[in-house]
Structure formats: C-alpha cells, structure tokens
Amino acid sequence: MTPPSPSTLLAQRLALAVPALLLGGAYVSQYGFGLPPCEMCWWQRYPHFAAVGLALLSTVAQPRRLWIALAAIAILVSGGIGAFHAGVEYGWWEGLTACSTVSLGGGDPLDAIMNAPLVRCDETPWSLMGISLAGWNFLISAVAGIAILLLLRRKA
Question: What b/e string do you get for 73-102 counting C-beta neighbours within 10 Å, with b at 16 or more?
C-alpha cells in the first residue's frame, strides 16, 4: 500500500474533522444551551454521522480516496439540507407542516411527551450575524465538501 499524498491526507482530515466538529457544535447547542433540534435539524445530522464513519473507514480500508469522496458527498448533502432548512427559517419557501418534540426521558412517558418543548422548523432559535445554525451548517459544509473534493483531484 502506497502512502497517501499530502492533499489526500488533508482531505481525509477535513472529512473527519468538519462533520465531527459540526456535530459537536450541534450537541453543545442542544444540551449546553437548551436549543432542542427540530426535525430538519436531525436530518442535517444524519449525513454528518455517515461522513464521520466514511472518513474513519478511509483510514483502514482501500480505496481510501473513494471513502473520502463519499464522506465529502455526505457533508455536501448535509449542507444542502441546511440550505433548505435555512430557507424555511427565513420564510423563502414553505417547509414541513409537522413539528417535533424532544422527550427528556425519565418518569412517566406520557407526562414527558406532554411537557416536552414543541420545536418548529420555521423558527430560528439562534443566529450569528443574521445567519441561523442551519445557514452556518450550509456554509461550512458546502465549503468543506467542495474543498475535500478539490483536494482529492490534486495529483500526488
């Protein structure tokens, strides 16, 4: 097995770090700052979970560049969902009509459901410089996914 090129190593590190950090930020906002996720927030997390798994797989399985490219695509998918979600939050188009709740567990299940916060996908619970969390996920994921794919295109 030949050692990977520096650009492939950087792509691999980005494919692992970016979704891991974005997931970490999502969980810090959820559990540290009390911002429960809506349904579309969860949808954005799933491709990041897949990207972390694919990036980890690229450290042990061949063809390494394929696994990294698939991780980059998963990151881009999450960014696309984030773009759609941000558009819903900003009122550019209609999103889901259903809302989700977060069960905090423990005690009576019916009581937990009845007292769980209602989380709407069309409301922005937090923003930085006018950009919601979904918007930041779109921006970061799009730049990272494209950067990873461009790094993989470089010759050794």
Answer: bbbbbbbbbbbbbbbbbeeeeebeeeebbe
Per-residue pLDDT tens for 113-152? Answer: 666 667 777 777 777 798 888 999 999 999 999 999 999 9
- Kindly report, residue by residue over 45-79, the tens digit of the pLDDT: 999 999 999 999 999 999 999 999 999 999 999 99
| Domain ranges for the chain | 6-93+103-153
Q: Which CATH architecture has domain 6-93+103-153?
A: Up-down Bundle (1.20)
Q: Closest Cα partner for 142 from 69, 83, 79? A: 79
Residue length, the chain? Answer: 156
